[in-house]
């Protein structure tokens, strides 16, 4: 998708708002199930991009858009009682080749100079947020471990402990099953950090939903 088209596409998705979120929330006994935390990993940005928004596929001033498959992620940030939260949602991830824009990433895969790698969104009064990004590539960690495509999330809301977690793609079953980070999540909670990508004629790109449920228990000091 060319830069111009992606900008038009971003406008269209803004106009669409979040009205297309129809998937049911993860309800347990009338409550929303807490999103399990996961490790932050080593590649949280050391420097943040100048272009700071929720569209990681286009960088201001660049003629080319990011390489790879554009996807849309939409969801809500909610309490355990399924009430919407005003929150800041940060994401960071590898580009389509599986490389982070980070000094300590040893992966020899090429960096994509047109990918934003990090972005943030703020939720509206219904708790809704959205991102336009690229489906990340997997990357090797050891000789016998390849991390599946995943996106790192950090969610902060006033007066609540922050949540750091990772989101996976259900279509990457083989790599997901062997991933040492995902396997630390209790089996019955893994569906809470798993996203289905679905075609959507109105958006013309695949999109998925990730609802995030924050723990309201104050942090013990
Ligand atoms: Fe990662």
TrEMBL record:
CDD domains: 3_4-PCD. It holds the Pfam family Dioxygenase_C. SUPFAM superfamilies: Aromatic compound dioxygenase. GO terms for molecular function: ferric iron binding; protocatechuate 3,4-dioxygenase activity. Residues 41-215 form the Intradiol ring-cleavage dioxygenases domain. InterPro entries: 3_4-PCD (IPR039387), Intradiol_dOase_C (IPR000627), Intradiol_dOase_core (IPR015889), Intradiol_RC_Dioxygenase (IPR050770). Keywords: Dioxygenase, Oxidoreductase. Belongs to the intradiol ring-cleavage dioxygenase family. PANTHER family: DIOXYGENASE, PUTATIVE (AFU_ORTHOLOGUE AFUA_2G02910)-RELATED, INTRADIOL RING-CLEAVAGE DIOXYGENASES DOMAIN-CONTAINING PROTEIN. This is Intradiol ring-cleavage dioxygenase. It comes from Gloeothece verrucosa (strain PCC 7822). The lineage of its organism: Bacteria, Bacillati, Cyanobacteriota, Cyanophyceae, Oscillatoriophycideae.
């Amino acid at each position: 998708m060319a830069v111009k088209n992606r900008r038009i596409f971003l406008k269209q998705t803004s106009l669409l708002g979040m009205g297309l979120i129809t998937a049911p929330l993860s309800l347990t006994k009338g409550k929303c199930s807490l999103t399990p935390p996961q490790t932050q990993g080593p590649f949280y940005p050391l420097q943040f991009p100048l272009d700071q928004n929720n569209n990681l596929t286009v960088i201001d001033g660049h003629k080319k858009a990011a390489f790879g498959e554009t996807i849309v992620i939409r969801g809500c940030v909610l309490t355990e009682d399924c009430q919407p939260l005003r929150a800041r949602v940060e994401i960071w991830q590898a580009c389509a080749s599986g490389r982070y824009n980070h000094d300590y990433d040893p992966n020899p895969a090429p960096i994509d100079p047109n990918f934003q790698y990090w972005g943030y969104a703020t939720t509206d009064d219904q708790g809704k947020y959205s991102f336009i990004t690229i489906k990340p590539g997997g990357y090797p960690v050891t000789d016998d471990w390849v991390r599946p495509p995943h996106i790192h999330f950090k969610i902060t809301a006033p007066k609540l402990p922050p949540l750091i977690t990772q989101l996976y793609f259900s279509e990457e079953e083989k790599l997901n099953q062997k991933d040492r980070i995902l396997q630390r999540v209790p089996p019955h909670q893994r569906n809470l950090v798993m996203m289905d990508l679905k075609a959507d004629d109105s958006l013309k790109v695949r999109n998925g939903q990730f609802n995030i449920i924050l723990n309201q228990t104050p942090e013990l000091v």
